[in-house]
Structures are given as structure tokens and as C-alpha cells.
Amino acid sequence: MGHGIRKRRVWGAVYVAAALVIAVVAGACTAGQEVDTTGDEESRPPSGRTEQAGSLAWDATALRDAAASLVGWRTSVGDYGSLVLLSDSDAPDTVWSAPGPGYGGPLAIDAIEPLVVLAGEAGTPAAGGAAVDALVILRPDGTVSSHDLPAEFGSLSGATISQGRVLVLAHRATTETYDTALFALGDDGAWQPVRLEGDVPAHQFVERAVAVPQTDSLAVVLKTEGGTGDRDDEALVLARLTGDALVVYSTPFADDALPGIAPLWAEEGVVFPRTWRVVDGAPVLDIVVARWDGESWQERAVLEDADVASGVETGMAVTAGSEGVLWLRSAPSGAHGEGAQLLRLPEGAAAPESTGVDLSDVGWFAWVDAGGS
Amino acid sequence: MSTFMRRRCRLLGVTVLSVAMLAGSAGVSAAAPAGRSGTAGGRSSSSAVEPGWPESHLPEADPRPGEPGYLEVRPTLTPPPDGMTDEEFKARDPEGFAALLPERAQIERRLLERARGALAKEGLRAADGSVAASDIRAAETVLAATTWSPYGYLRFRLVPNTTSPYARNGYLGTLYFIYGIYYPTVDAYKWYTVSWPARSGNNRPADQSKVGVGPIPAYTWDFGFMNGVWRGYEADGRDAFYPGKWRLDPWTGGPYNRCYLEVHGGRYLHEFAATSGCVRVYPSAITALKSYYDTKMANKKDKATADLRVAY
Questions:
Q1: Among A14-23, A78-87, B272-281, where is mean pLDDT lowest?
Q2: Is the pLDDT confidence value at A308 over 50?
Q3: How far is the C-alpha of B88 from the C-alpha of B244, rounded, in Å?
């Protein structure tokens, strides 16, 4: 399978590159939204991304036409990263390839619409690396736009898509302080502050916010003033986005491993690798599902002492698909995650089954279901 | 050879090397490594480790040019701002200042002896310790050839704390870079300190003996060395390390059989996330630390003094 995928990826990249050249020369591509210029572009280091995003297009139909699928972000030798279909070997596997440097991989993908949020990177020569300073959005109409982060919160913690709206979690930090803020991207390209309201537990900052697919809920992880216990540093609540407020409607669920959550599919809840359990001095890994039943949290370890990746030293470890299926990363045996396989855990199954899909060089994956065939 | 085959060969090599190094480390550990600072020893409570570790930390796994995650090491072009003076350090972090001062005083006594000796040997220091104004430039030239000024070292602490946003598991981790500059005109060092929030393993000092779980053990580690050889700062664009790292010696056979430990960054899901024992800081802290490491640590290649001191 690996050779076939690689050949298709090469041709996919060639196709995308050729399409871009033709589009630019002909001036026929849709321009997309203007790159946000609130920052001082001249003083910014060149990233490649800023110049390209405004003139890019992408083929949104590749995602729209896909059947229920797992998509991933694959970064292979000689390319800048590609959005690929992982679970359907018969379909063309490359959805979109980054045309150059400046794209840091997906942060969120809409479960239904072909809408993808990627991290935008600016090169910082002194560091020998890059800083995430913007979002790049692949839109359902085939346009690509770039949006600088709000000036006062210039560092990105994450992004999600709730009911078609793009939300970002940004932060600012000093040696002693760490503040986060949520913003929604308006139709005019401006950032709208989003407040956290309702019965919000005492917390220090918002650690993560992820939309639950096919619901109006968001799972929000809050960093709390914790202690030495295993379930006192983080709290999970569910919330709904109403106007410019994220209104909490669940009680909190506590677990120190909550930063590793992925939302369940069409269910109010999350799945996460619990990384803190130790048996006889040895760390063991459990895959835990926490569901909100309308009144309280119901917690269940769907795999105990599992031989799967936890995400501590690897890429993303688990995501949820439709029909209660969980998709997991096997414990890799290679330095770059070579040997890591995509595992499938049907609802109620005692152990995951191998899919044969190679997760080498795939750091992020998510389930989409556009209703295609 | 195709890229695919090259990577498979490297994977095989890494696997073989991993097994060999783990076996080697167990053998070294059996000989009860003595901590340079006196707290090492003991044996591993478990051989279980986090999936993916330690292979991803081995140098054979480092991304190479053209591979995803490869980053070039770039020189520091702009000197960093001065760190906190003692007065500023004491005002901002009185407990940290008090904890670090005694060991720094010991280091300073040793450094002063060496600096004074070097100047006296060149006839630049009078019996009363003074350096003539006309000899200042020559004194600076002599000192520039030594590793004693600017002299830098690092310190990692975990202290009970539940209120800081950077505290995890009831402990606040801090990575300090301390450097001193000798001024021959006053025959004294002036010290500066820079610090960043940091974390290591599960952040609980009591678990330092638990391989793959607890924080880096209390010990004096050689910063930027591996198996006795200086490697310095190593850029690494992989998300779990981004934007780079310094390896720590003993690379294998450390206290409690802990091995393959580093100071590194991490971004996206790995930003300030838990580790298998490595010290993790924010990417911006790696960038800042590199600038001080490049410009304020003349002793960086001196294995005997390029220390990361860990004490709980």
C-alpha cells in the first residue's frame, strides 16, 4: 500500500503545483479573503505562506465527495505537508498539498463541510524555526485565506470549528503569567472576543476548546489550581456557542490527562489517553471515554493497560469516528513513528484491530463525514 | 537507495542501537552510578517506557536535511538582554534566589581563584589584587581565552505550588540560566539570572526514580553533552522537540537508570505537555536560552562545568 500511496502523492503534488501555476498565470483563481494586514507585514520575516495564501485555491470537492473517512496530515520527505485520506485506499489519497513553507498542519477540520483550519507559520531566522502567528483557512468555496492572530494575543493554542464558525484559542505569556482568550472569526475577517459564561468552574486559563461534531457543543478544558493528585489539574465542561458567549451547561469532569482529549462523534463527551496510572512502578495507558448524560458524567475505560500510543512522545493518539468507532495510533517502534499503524476499535470491542494503514509521518488525524459516496 | 529503503535501514539501525544502548545502560547502572552532586544511585523500578521513547530521542532519529522536521542551527546574531541582577532576581523570586545563592557562592570562589591566578601568571595582577588601568585590555584578553568569563550554568527546580498557571501536579518547575562576568577592575564577578517555566515527567520529585514517569533525577548533568562528547544546541523541528534541544550526560546510566534525557521544547499538542522525564519549556524559552548559551557561556564545551544542576 505504501508504494501506491507514495506514487499517488507524487502525482497529486504535481497536479496541485500545475493547477496553481495555471491558475495564477490565467488569473482565474478565486482570490479568497484578503490577508489580514493589521500586523506590520514589512517587519515580519518571510514565511512563504503570506504571499501565497491570497492567491491560492484548493479543490474542496475532494473532501465534499469523500465518503465517511479519516483524514490526516502527512509530512513526507521533500514536501511541505499534505491533507490525505487515510481510511479509503481506493480514493485518491491526497486532498491538498501545502505549496511551500509556512503551513504548520491542521488545527481543526469541520466534520461536514470542507472547511480546514491550518496553522500559519512565519519563519524566525534567529530561532532556526518558525512561530505560529496566523491561521490559514481552506474554505468550502475553494478559496484560501490567511488571518493574523489578534495583536494582544499573538500566540496560538488551538482552533476549532463550531457550526461553521472558526474559533481560536490564543494566549499571551510572561514568566509568571499565562492568559488565554477565545476569539471567533467574523465574516468580515475580524476577530470577535468570546466570553465564557454560565456555571464556569474556578480556573486559571482555558487549556483547550474543541467542537463536538454534529452537535452544538464544545468540550472546554480548563486548567485549574491543582495539587499533587491525578485528577485535580484540569476540568472539562461542555458549553454552547451563543452569539459572543460560550455558555457552560455541564458540571466539571476532572482528570489531569484532559489536554489529550478528542471529542466523541455526535455525542456529548470526549475520549482521551489517561497517562498517569502507574502499576507496580510502571506506567500503564488507559483509553477513557467520558460521556455527559444530561445530569452527570459517565466514565469508562474502553481499553486498560493498552498497547497503543499515548501521545506523550508521538503525534495525536486517538480520535472518534461515527458509529462509536475509535481510531487509535499503535505504539510506534520507529524513531519517526515508523511502524505506527492506524487501529480501529469498534464500539464494545475488547481490543483494537489493525487497519494496515501506515501512520508514519502522520501527526494529526480526524474523522469527517460529508455524506458523499 | 530509495528514501523508503533509507528510512527502513535507519529504522533497523535505530532499533538495534536502542536495544544495545538499553542493555548497555542497564550494565552501567548495575555499577551504581555515583551522582556528581551526591544524590544519584538506586536502580530502576521498572523497565517500562513510553511507546515511542527512547527511539525518538536517539541522534540516529534526528531529522536530516530534506526530511520533515529538519531545521538548521542558526547563529545568534543579536545579543540577548542582560538577565536579572541579584537585586531583581531577589525581588522577583526570593525563594529561588535563596536556594541558588549558596551553590553559586561556591562556584564563584573557585572561579575567582582561577581568574586571579591567570592574571597573576601574566603579571597583570598586583599583590593587593588590583589590576592597573593600563593593563585592563590585556587582562580582558587573557580572560577571553579562558572558560571563566562569561561563565554559565543551569539549574532546574521543582517546588510545591498550586497557584501558578505553570504548576502541574502541585509543583512549579523553573529552569534557570545563571551567568557571571568577571570584571578585573573590581576583581569580582557580576551575576545575572534568566528563568523560564519548565516541567519534567509528571513533575513530582518523589517519582524521580520511576523510568518514563517521574521528573529528571536530582543530579549534576552535563548540559549539551552525550557520552562525554560535546554536541551543543541541536535544532529539531519535530513537534515533540520544537525548536530544539540540548542532550544531557550521562546519556545512559544516569541515576535510577534514567537515560536519554534532554532539555527541549515542543509545540501544538506537545507545547508545555508532559514528558517521559525530559525537561520541557516553551518554544520561545528554547530560543531565548539558546541566545544566552551562545553568548554568555564560555564554558559550554567544558564538560566539568557546563552543568545542569537538578536538586529537589
A1: A14-23
A2: yes
A3: 29
Residue B303: strand pairing partners:
none
Q: Looking at chain A, which residue has its C-alpha nearest residue B161? A: A227
More confident residue, A359 or A290: A290
Kindly state the helix (H) or strand (E) to which residue A248 belongs, with its residue range. Answer: strand A245-248
Q: With an 8 Å Cβ cutoff, are A312 and B58 in contact?
A: no
Q: Which of B261, B266, B277, B89 is nearest to B200 (CA)?
A: B277
B192 conformational bin, left if phi > 0, alpha if psi -120 to 50, beta if neither: beta
Q: Which of A79, A169, A205, A312 to probe by mutation at the B interface, max B CB count within 10 Å?
A: A312
Say whether A226 and B169 touch across the interface (CB within 8 A).
Answer: yes
Tell me what pLDDT residue B256 has: 95
Residues of chain B with pLDDT under 70: 1-53
> Where does residue B125 fall: left (phi above 0), alpha (psi -120 to 50 degrees), or beta otherwise?
beta
**For residue A116, is pLDDT > 50?**
yes
DSSP string, A328-355: EEB---STTSTT-EEEEE-TT-SS-EEE
Instruction: Say if residues B200 and B279 touch (Cβ distance below 8 Å).
Output: yes
Residue with cell 585592563: B136
pLDDT tens column, A322-371: 999 999 999 866 554 557 899 999 999 999 999 989 887 898 999 998 66
Measured between CA atoms, how close is A202 to chain B, in angstroms? 12
ipTM value, please give it. Answer: 0.81
At B25-41, the pLDDT tens digits run: 433 333 333 345 433 33
Stretch A122-132: mean pLDDT: 58
Interface size between A and B, measured as CB pairs under 8 A: 176
> Which residues are paired to A287 by β-bridges?
A273, A303
B287 CB neighbours in chain A (<8 A) are: 124, 126-127, 129
- Residue B172's pLDDT is what? 98
HEC string for chain B: CCHHHHHHHHHHHHHHHHHHHHHHHHHHHHCCCCCCCCCCCCCCCCCCCCCCCCHHHCHHHCCCCCCCCCCCCCCCCCCCCCCECHHHHHHHCHHHHHHHHHHHHHHHHHHHHHHHHHHHHCCCCCCCCCCCHHHHHHHHHHHHCCCCCCEEEEEEEEEECCCCCCCECCEEEEEEEEEEEEECCCCEEEEEEEEEEEEECCCCHHHCCCCCCCCCCCEEEEECEECCEECCCEECCCCCCCCEEEEEECCCCCHHHCCCCEEECCCHHHCCCCCCCCEEECHHHHHHHHHHHHHCCCCCCCCCCCEEEECC
Determine whether the interchain pair A361/B48 forms a contact, defined as Cβ–Cβ distance below 8 Å. no
CB atoms B162 and A6 under 8 Å: no
Q: What DSSP element (H or E) covers A262?
A: strand A262-263
pTM for this model (two decimals): 0.84
- On the CB side of B209, how many CA atoms lie within 13 Å of its CA? 13
Looking at residues A42-56, what average pLDDT do you find?
49
State residue A124's pLDDT score: 52
Q: Return residues 14-73 of A near B (CB < 8 Å).
A: none
Contact B37, B221 (CB under 8 A): no
Sketch the domain layout of chain B as residue ranges: 3-16+42-310
